[in-house]
Write a structure and sequence with these properties.
Rossmann fold, 34% helix, eight-stranded mixed β-sheet, five-stranded parallel β-sheet, alpha/beta
C-alpha cells in the first residue's frame, strides 16, 4: 500500500508574515520556568518570518512542556540531550543565532560561569564560542532578578558584544517574560545586525499631536506611532542609547526605552529642544506626525454642540526647521505625501524637504494608499539622501526601521 507523504503543518505558516530569515537557523533553548508556555508563540512568529527553529530543552523543561509539542510547533527534532560532536558543536556551527526563552536565573548564572551541564547551557557556550548572537529572555521571581550575585552574572554576559538581553516586565513581584513582539524584535536585530549601533545616541520622535479646541475636542491625524516605536526598538536592541519622545500613541511603548510623553506640537518642540540642550545625540529621527495646524483660540470647558461655530486655524511651528538651527548632528525627516501612486512626484516633494529643512535623510511615503502607512504594520518608502535614493517595496515597519538605521549608521561613520 502506498503511503502518503504529507508536508508538516509548520509549512503552512513558514514565511507567511515575511521572508526575513531566509536561510537562517535559530537554536531555541527552553528552560524550567512557568513562562515556558509563551515559547511556542515566539517560535511560531520566528517561523512566520521564515526561520528554521531547532529546539534544545533542559531536563527540567521537559517536565513542564512535552518535547512532542515543541517538535510539532517547530517541525524539527528536539534535542533533550547531546552525545559527542553531533550535538552542541554541530548546532553551534549551523546556527545563525540562539535564543533562550525563557531563561531562568540558574541558567543565566551557569552560562556566565562557563558551566555547560544542561543541553541549553552547553549549546549557549558553543554559540558564544562561535561568536554568534545569543538572545537571553529572562523570567523569574523579582527576588532572584534583584539578587546582587545574579545581577553580576547578567551584567557579565551583557558586556559581550554578541549577547542581547530582552528586559522583563517588572510587575506583581516578578520579572515577567517580555512581550512576544519585543522578543521577536530582539531576535531579528541581534541575528541580522548585532550590536552595530553600540555607543550611538539616538533621539526618536513618534506619533501624532493633539491640538485642543476645548476641553474635549481636538485636531489630530491617524498616526499610531508604529514607525517611530519600531525604529526606537530596533536601535535599542542594536546597542544604541535611545530616547523616544512621543505624542498620544495607540501602539504599546517598550518599557525598557527611555520615553518622554507630550501632547501638542509645541510640547514636542520643547521636549526635543530640552533633550538636545541637556544631552548629546548623534542623530535625531523625526518619525512623529505632529499636526500642522492648531486652533487660534482654545475654549475653556466644553462647547455647546447645539449650535455651529467658526474657528480659525493657525500654523504650528515646523519642529524640524527649529531644531536644525541648533542641532548640528544627523537629522532624519519624514515626508508623508498624498500623491496617488506618483513616485516621481513623491521623490520631488521629498527632495524639496531634504534641502529646505536641512535633513540629511528623508523617508518618503504615499499616504493615499490604505494598505500602508498610518495605522498599518506595513509601509512602502523611499529613503532619500544627497547620495542616493533607496526604494523599499511594501514591507513590515520593522524591516523599514532596520534599513533606515543601516543608512544612519553609514552616514554617521562617514
Amino acid at each position: 500500500m502506498k503511503r502518503l507523504s504529507l508536508p508538516h503543518p509548520v509549512e503552512e505558516i513558514k514565511g507567511s508574515y515575511f521572508n526575513i530569515y531566509e536561510g537562517k537557523t535559530i537554536i531555541f533553548g527552553l528552560t524550567s520556568s512557568a513562562a515556558i508556555y509563551k515559547s511556542i508563540d515566539v517560535m511560531r512568529e520566528l517561523i512566520r518570518r521564515n526561520a528554521k527553529v531547532i529546539a534544545v530543552m533542559s531536563e527540567e523543561a521537559t517536565k513542564l512542556i512535552s518535547p512532542l509539542l515543541i517538535e510539532w510547533a517547530t517541525g524539527e527534532s528536539v534535542f533533550t540531550e547531546f552525545g559527542g560532536e553531533v550535538g552542541h558543536i554541530s548546532l553551534g556551527r549551523i546556527a545563525s543565532s540562539m535564543i533562550i526563552c525563557p531563561a531562568t536565573a540558574n541558567t543565566i548564572a551557569k552560562i556566565a560561569a562557563g558551566i555547560g551541564d544542561t543541553p541549553v547551557t552547553l549549546a549557549a557556550l558553543s554559540i558564544l564560542g562561535f561568536n554568534k548572537p545569543l538572545i537571553i529572555v529572562p523570567a523569574m521571581h523579582y527576588s532572584l532578578w534583584s539578587s546582587p550575585t545574579f545581577r553580576d552574572s547578567l551584567n557579565k554576559l551583557m558586556k559581550y558584544s554578541n549577547v542581547v538581553v530582552v528586559p522583563p516586565n517588572i510587575k506583581e513581584g516578578k520579572a515577567k517574560i517580555a512581550n512576544v513582539e519585543d522578543i521577536v524584535a530582539a531576535a531579528e536585530a541581534a541575528t541580522l545586525r548585532g550590536k552595530d549601533l553600540d555607543g550611538i545616541r539616538i533621539l526618536v520622535t513618534a506619533g501624532p499631536s493633539r491640538e485642543y479646541l476645548d476641553g474635549v475636542r481636538f485636531l489630530s491625524n491617524p498616526s499610531t506611532g508604529k514607525m517611530g516605536i519600531a525604529i526606537a526598538r530596533e536601535a535599542y536592541f542594536r546597542g544604541a542609547n535611545v530616547t523616544l519622545i512621543h505624542g498620544p500613541v495607540t501602539t504599546p511603548i517598550p518599557h525598557y526605552i527611555r520615553t518622554i510623553s507630550v501632547m501638542s506640537a509645541e510640547d514636542m518642540l520643547k521636549a526635543v529642544f530640552n533633550e538636545i540642550k541637556t544631552h548629546k545625540y548623534d542623530a535625531i529621527i523625526m518619525a512623529a506626525a505632529p499636526t500642522d495646524f492648531k486652533f487660534k483660540n482654545i475654549i475653556e470647558g466644553k462647547l455647546d454642540s447645539s449650535r455651529g461655530i467658526n474657528v480659525t486655524l493657525i500654523p504650528n511651528p515646523k519642529i524640524s526647521l527649529e531644531i536644525r538651527k541648533y542641532f548640528k548632528g544627523l537629522i532624519v525627516g519624514f515626508s508623508a505625501e498624498y500623491v496617488k501612486g506618483d513616485k516621481k512626484l513623491l521623490k520631488e516633494l521629498a527632495l524639496r524637504k531634504l534641502y529646505e529643512r536641512g535633513f540629511d535623510i528623508v523617508i518618503a511615503n504615499d499616504i493615499s494608499r490604505r494598505d500602508i502607512g498610518f495605522a498599518s504594520d506595513f509601509n512602502e518608502v523611499l529613503i532619500i539622501s544627497e547620495e542616493e535614493v533607496i526604494e523599499i517595496p511594501k514591507a513590515p515597519k520593522s524591516i523599514i526601521a532596520r534599513v533606515i538605521l543601516d543608512k544612519v549608521k553609514v552616514m554617521l561613520h562617514n
